[in-house]
Amino acid sequence: MSLEISPNAALIVIDVQREFDEPRHGRRDNPDAEDNIGRLVAAWQDADRLVIRVAQTEKDGGFAPHNPGHAFKSVIADIVPSLDVRKEVHSAFHGVPDLDVWLRNNEVEQIVICGIQTNRCCESTARVGADLGYDVLFAIDATHTFDKHGPDGEVYTAEQLSAATGATLHDYFATVVRTAELLGDS
Fold first, then answer.
1. What pLDDT is recorded for position 50?
2. Dist. CA 180–CA 186, nearest whole Å
3. Does the global pTM surpass 0.85?
């Protein structure tokens, strides 16, 4: 399969914030996520493509602007994004400024999603993006998530949750890809 990436495809980097380094979030998967995010950001910036940096924001708690956890992780802290979005919900399309309006004003039809958490904000953004008509590429190995207890008390591993997200999104809401495919390394 040959992956077609639009020249003006926008990279959306979701919630790569220090709060997710806190032990309270539990065990995570994909220790290479931040490296892959960094590789994607560098490639997009080298190609003079659009990079959107998204931050979870809340009034209280670890993501509150006055807390250290709100800060971006070093992999994206010093970049100059094309746009910064702040959100208080899961999808980057429900933040400020309005991401959909901004993408349409910049004639973007294809988005590439990476960040934290695979099965929450990244997946939510992919679903809403698809519903809005964008061609969504989901960089599964440039995301990570955490183990989670289900309603029955069973623990679902981060790997299971990421695999379920990939299976759910692929060929329906997004094309699930790997960093190497996006960078032409495959």
1. 98
2. 5
3. yes
Distance CA 182, CA 173 (A): 18
Beta strands in the chain (DSSP E): 10-14, 51-56, 83-87, 110-116, 135-144, 148-149, 155-156, 175-177
Q: Which whole-number Å values give the CA distances from 87 to 2, 97, 145, in the listed order? A: 34, 9, 19
Nearest to 56 by CA among 136, 124, 156: 124
Rounded to the nearest 5 percent, the helix, strand and coil shares of the chain are: 35, 25, 40
Write out 84-97 in H/E/C secondary structure: EEEECCCCHHHCEC
CA 139 to chain centre: 8
pLDDT tens string 146-160: 999 999 999 999 999
At 67, the amino acid letter reads N
Q: Which fold has domain 10-183?
A: Rossmann fold (3.40.50)
